[in-house]
């Protein structure tokens, strides 16, 4: 099994697309990239921990490649917005691909270059590609939020959905 970590705004909206992909064994919401050990949601929201909301994906590379996960990641984010995602603003919502190996870094960078060259976006691709740091799981009430509160999930993901439809359809 391998591990991938992606940040793309509120982690609530990042879980479902990955969780529904064949070859993905688990998707957990959490925090990474900061300097405070075991942060709480409230601490991360205070913007003092340096952490970003992210998802940790455990996947079977025999059934789903890391390159395929990166391509799916692009289709969940606005890669031209470094200061948050959609209605979620600030560093804790910035788009980041956190790599866990040199191979993952190379795959992510090549994919980012292809996306930039594609002309799909009229602004530069600014998503960061950074080495993974410790991933801290978020509180249980954040896990699989789309299943726990589908109405609230739908409201929070509408802006994201509309943007994605306009760029990936």
From TrEMBL:
Keyword Glycosyltransferase recorded: no
NCBIfam families documented for this protein: msrA
GO molecular function per UniProt: L-methionine:thioredoxin-disulfide S-oxidoreductase activity; peptide-methionine (S)-S-oxide reductase activity
Domain Peptide methionine sulphoxide reductase MsrA as annotated: residue spans: 4-153
First-level EC class: oxidoreductase
Keywords: Oxidoreductase
Protein name: Peptide methionine sulfoxide reductase MsrA
Lineage: Bacteria, Bacillati, Bacillota, Bacilli, Lactobacillales
Designated gene of the protein: msrA
Record carries keyword Oxidoreductase: yes
Assigned protein family: Belongs to the MsrA Met sulfoxide reductase family.
Function: Has an important function as a repair enzyme for proteins that have been inactivated by oxidation. Catalyzes the reversible oxidation-reduction of methionine sulfoxide in proteins to methionine.
EC code: 1.8.4.11
Active site: 10
Gene3D superfamilies according to UniProt: Peptide methionine sulphoxide reductase MsrA
Pfam families per record: PMSR
Reaction equation(s) it catalyzes: [thioredoxin]-disulfide + L-methionine + H2O = L-methionine (S)-S-oxide + [thioredoxin]-dithiol; L-methionyl-[protein] + [thioredoxin]-disulfide + H2O = L-methionyl-(S)-S-oxide-[protein] + [thioredoxin]-dithiol
Taxonomic source organism: Streptococcus cuniculipharyngis
């Amino acid at each position: 099994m391998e591990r991938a970590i992606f940040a793309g705004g509120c982690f609530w909206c990042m879980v479902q697309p990955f969780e529904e992909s064949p070859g993905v064994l688990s998707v957990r919401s959490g925090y990474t990239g900061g300097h405070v050990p075991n942060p709480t949601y409230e601490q991360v929201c205070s913007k003092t921990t340096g952490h970003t909301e992210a998802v940790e994906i455990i996947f079977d590379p025999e059934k789903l490649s890391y390159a395929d996960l990166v391509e799916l990641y692009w289709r969940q984010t606005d890669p031209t917005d470094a200061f948050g995602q959609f209605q979620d603003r600030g560093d804790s919502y910035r788009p980041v691909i956190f790599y866990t190996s040199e191979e993952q870094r190379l795959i992510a960078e090549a994919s980012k270059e292809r996306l930039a060259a594609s002309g799909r976006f009229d602004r530069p691709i600014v998503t960061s590609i950074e080495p993974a740091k410790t991933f801290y799981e978020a509180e249980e009430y954040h896990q699989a939020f789309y299943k726990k509160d589908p109405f609230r999930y739908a409201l929070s993901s509408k802006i994201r959905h509309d943007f994605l439809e306009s760029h990936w359809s």
